[in-house]
Amino acid sequence: MRTIVPVKQVPDMRQVRFETEKGVVDRSSADAEINPFDLNALEAAVQAKGTLGGTVTAISMGPRQAESALRDALARGADSAILLADEAFAGADTLATSYTLAYAIKRLGDFDLIICGEKTVDGDTGQVGPELAEHLGIPHIAYVAKIEEVGEKLKVVCDMEGEFYSVESGFPVLITVTKDVNTPRLPTFRDKVNARKAKVEIWNAKDLSSVADAGRFGAAGSPTRVHRVTIPSEEGRKGQVFRDTRDKTMNELVTTIFQCLGET
Question: Which of 90, 121, 190, 256 has its CA 20 to 30 A from that of 164?
Fold first, then answer.
């Protein structure tokens, strides 16, 4: 079983700041980590390898510091790791990101299964996985909450907003998994040490030039434009004490309730 897991390095969303004028996330404002949903995808791939044998390749697109996320993936059971790092890839929306990843996977060669996290915590679109499958011309199954069988065929259960569907597919196929599919393992100290020594391949735009259209990389290949970013205010609960006569209190209470409803 040859499995590929796209992973993304994301900022800790509890700490991160937003540059509202530029419409971007200030990634330097918070510690970086592997997207939590991608950890579920990686765990599913490692479990499949444990059952059927084979290899797991982790692939990411980002700046050179994203190499640390791939080393974390190696510590958690991936056999090899590839980082797509080039200024030409910068500013990519989901379409350009999925295109770049797809053609890197084509350069890798044959595969059986691609497992993606449901979404990323910094974008929350859930678009890259299905788009990646479309670029590769393979079927995809979204919102996989349980993997029941991996062998001659793939059998999964999908959680579609509380309704569960059993889906079967042959290979190759791409799936996106939810956080309910498993509990990601923690790497041991030895795993971390070995991952530090392992090789992470670095590919740039030139490495993909034989299979891809460079005009579809990065900002140049991104039709999405961010007009404005706004941060919703977070207000705590407010208390109010009514001390007047009963009729007046009821009138004030009803008025307050309608005001609150109007704000929502």
Answer: 121
